[in-house]
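User: C-alpha cells in, sequence out, please.
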C-alpha cells in the first residue's frame, strides 16, 4: 500500500516537474543586470540575513550547538562586540560602488547561469533513475569497488527499542535473509540475551555471597535474612512502580539493578544493627534515630541519581528514573515491612515470656 501510494504521489508531481523544466529551458540569460534587479538582490540578501538570525535564535534556545556555531560564522556572534556579519559586509561592498557591482554580478551571472540551468534541467528529469545515474560518491558508499556487491539497509515497521519481542522477531528475520546481517538490532538482541543469562547468574551469586557476609556479621542466619527483606521486596516494588509509571526495562535500567543491590541493602543492615544494640524492644527509638539517618541518605541518593533524569541522552535519563524509584522503594520497605516484622518478633518474644511466667 505504501509503495502504491508513493507511486501515485510521484505521478501527481510529474506535471509540475515538466512545467519547471519547460520554464527553465525557455529562460534566457540576461547579459546585464538592471537597477531594479540589483535592488531586489540587496533586499533578498537582507532577508536572508534576518532568516539566519532567526534560525540562530531557535538553535540557541533548542540547544543545537552546531547550528548555532555555523550561524555565528555567517551573521556574527551577538555576544561579541567585534563580531561581523559576512552578509552585511557583502551588502556594504555591493552598495558602495553600484556600477562596478552590477558589472561584476552580470559577469558572474553569465558564467554561472548555464551551469545552474543544466543542473536544474537534470533535476527536472522524470525518467526512472538507474544505477549509472547515481554520483560516484553514492556508489562508493553503498557498493564495493567492483560494483557487484551492495549494502542493503532494512528498516523495521515498528519500534524495536520499546518492544523486545518485536526486536527479537526482526533480528531473526534478518538472519534468515543473510546470516551475515549486522547492525544495532542483532547486536542489541545479543546484548539482551547476555544480560538475561549472565546477569541473572551474577545477581543470584551476589545475593548468596551477601547472605553469607551478613550471616558472618550478625552471627545468625535469621538476622541476615531480616536485613535482606527490604532489598528483596524493594526490587519487586521498584519493577512494579516502573510499570505503573510507564517506564520499561531497558539495557540502561537493567544496569541499575546491581546498583540497587549495593545501595538498597544498607537500610536493612543499619536498622538490624540498631535493633540488636537497643535490646530488640524499643522500635520507636530505632526508627526515630536510625530511621532519620537512612531517610537522609536515601533522599540524597535519590536526588543524586534523579538528576540524571534531565540528561540530554535518554539512556541516562532512564537509568536515573529507575534508580530514583529503586532507592525510594527500598526505603519504604524498610520503614513499612521491616518495622512490622521487627514489631511482630518483639510481640512474639514478649508473649512467650508471659506464657513461661
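Assistant: Sequence out:
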Amino acid at each position: 500500500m505504501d509503495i502504491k501510494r508513493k507511486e501515485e504521489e510521484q505521478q501527481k508531481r510529474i506535471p509540475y516537474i515538466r512545467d519547471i523544466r519547460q520554464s527553465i529551458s525557455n529562460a534566457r540569460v540576461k547579459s546585464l543586470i538592471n537597477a531594479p534587479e540589483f535592488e531586489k538582490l540587496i533586499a533578498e540578501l537582507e532577508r536572508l540575513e534576518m532568516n539566519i538570525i532567526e534560525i540562530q535564535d531557535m538553535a540557541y534556545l533548542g540547544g543545537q550547538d552546531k547550528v548555532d556555531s555555523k550561524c555565528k560564522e555567517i551573521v556574527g556572534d551577538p555576544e561579541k562586540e567585534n563580531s561581523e556579519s559576512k552578509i552585511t559586509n557583502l551588502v556594504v561592498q555591493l552598495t558602495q560602488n553600484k556600477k562596478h557591482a552590477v558589472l561584476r554580478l552580470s559577469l558572474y551571472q553569465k558564467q554561472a547561469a548555464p551551469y545552474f540551468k543544466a543542473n536544474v534541467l537534470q533535476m527536472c528529469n522524470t525518467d526512472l533513475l538507474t544505477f549509472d545515474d547515481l554520483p560516484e560518491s553514492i556508489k562508493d558508499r553503498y557498493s564495493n569497488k567492483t560494483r557487484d556487491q551492495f549494502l542493503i539497509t532494512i528498516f523495521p515497521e515498528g519500534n524495536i527499542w520499546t518492544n523486545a519481542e518485536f526486536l527479537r522477531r526482526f533480528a531473526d528475520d534478518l538472519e534468515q535473509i543473510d546470516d551475515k546481517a549486522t547492525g544495532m538490532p542483532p547486536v542489541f538482541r545479543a546484548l539482551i540475551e547476555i544480560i538475561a543469562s549472565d546477569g541473572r547468574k551474577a545477581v543470584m551469586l551476589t545475593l548468596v555471597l551477601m547472605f553469607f557476609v551478613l550471616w558472618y556479621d550478625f552471627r545468625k542466619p535469621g538476622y541476615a535474612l531480616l536485613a535482606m527483606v527490604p532489598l528483596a521486596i524493594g526490587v519487586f516494588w521498584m519493577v512494579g512502580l516502573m510499570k505503573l509509571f510507564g517506564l520499561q526495562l531497558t539495557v540502561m535500567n537493567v544496569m541499575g539493578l546491581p546498583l540497587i543491590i549495593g545501595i538498597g541493602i544498607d537500610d536493612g543492615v543499619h536498622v538490624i544493627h540498631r535493633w540488636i544494640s537497643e535490646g530488640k524492644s524499643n522500635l520507636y527509638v530505632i526508627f526515630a534515630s536510625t530511621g532519620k539517618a537512612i531517610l537522609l541518605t536515601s533522599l540524597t541518593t535519590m536526588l543524586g541519581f534523579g538528576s540524571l533524569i534531565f540528561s540530554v541522552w535518554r539512556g541516562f535519563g532512564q537509568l536515573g528514573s529507575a534508580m530514583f524509584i529503586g532507592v525510594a522503594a527500598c526505603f519504604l520497605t524498610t520503614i513499612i515491612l521491616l518495622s512490622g516484622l521487627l514489631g511482630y518478633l518483639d510481640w512474639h518474644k514478649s508473649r512467650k515470656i508471659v506464657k513461661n511466667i
